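Subject: Re: docking follow-up (zinc ion)

Dear J.,

Thanks for your patience while I sorted out the input files. As discussed at Tuesday's group meeting, I've set up the holo structure prediction with zinc ion included as the bound ligand rather than trying to dock it afterwards. The sequence and the ligand SMILES I used are pasted below, so you can double-check that they match what you have on your end before we go further.
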Amino acid sequence: MIAGAPPAPPYEAAVRAATPVLVPPVPAAVGRAPLCAKRGCVMQPSDVTSASRSHYFCDRCSGRSAAQHLGGSTRRWTCVRCDYDICFKCHPEPGATGA
Ligand SMILES: [Zn+2]
Ligand SMILES: [Zn+2]
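The structure tokens for the complex came back this morning:
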């Protein structure tokens, strides 16, 4: 007996295995991140976006970093897609609760 290559999987199984599983790109902060009120996007800390250094206007409490809201820091939750911002007073920043 000559052992050949292991048998190929049935065609259907191969196709099924090749089908990409739809996994949404969830940032690491998911579970703590607020959702953007415009489209329900998972918001991101501004640190990881290009908006981190621009001033924000909190869409919940109307706080303005330019007016020294929360010490004037420009860090906040942001949805780049919808241009929606939430300050860390309205929703605590990730890790702030000591988790
Ligand atoms: Zn706010
Ligand atoms: Zn959004």
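A couple of observations from a first look. DSSP finds one helix and three strands in the chain. The mean pLDDT is 82.

Let me know if you'd like me to rerun anything.

Best regards,
T.
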